[in-house]
Amino acid sequence: MIYKINFTRSGRILEYCSHEHANLSILDLAFDNDVQIKAGCRSGYCSACQVEITKGDVKYFYDPPPVPADGGAALLCSCYPVSDLEING
Ligand code: FES
Fold first, then answer.
1. What CA–CA distance (Å, rounded) separates 19 from 41?
2. Which of 89, 43, 88, 51 is CA-nearest to residue 69?
3. For the chain, N or C: smaller number of CB within 10 Å?
4. Which CATH number fits domain 2-87: 2.60.130.10, 3.10.20.30, 3.30.70.100, 3.30.70.270?
């Protein structure tokens, strides 16, 4: 499956291929494509990469993540898309 991820603040739309990008987080995809997202630990503990998901759904590599995200938000270092997404990032 190919999902479109719209980073609304950055004005970028990226494609995430569930086969090609398996084990790649949304944060990794953003970094690989020069989309600027705040980050710290990159392993789900510091919440620096937390952003609001305004449309769509994500899944975490580890469920539950070490530190749960606030409602309507996700830790981009620890998740991948399971639908098209709109992210306030
Ligand atoms: S970068 Fe620390 S939780 Fe994502």
1. 25
2. 51
3. N
4. 3.10.20.30
The set of protein residues with a Cβ atom below 6 angstroms from ligand 1 is 39-42, 44-49, 75, 77
Q: Beta-carbon neighbour count of residue 66 at 10 Å?
A: 14
Index of the ligand 1 atom closest to the CA of residue 41: 2
Question: Which residues in the chain land under pLDDT 70?
Answer: none
Q: What is the largest CA-CA distance in the chain?
A: 30
Q: What is the 40 CA–ligand 1 centroid distance (Å)?
A: 5
Q: Is the pTM of this model over 0.90?
A: yes
Say how many Å lie between the CA of residue 59 and the centre of ligand 1.
Answer: 15
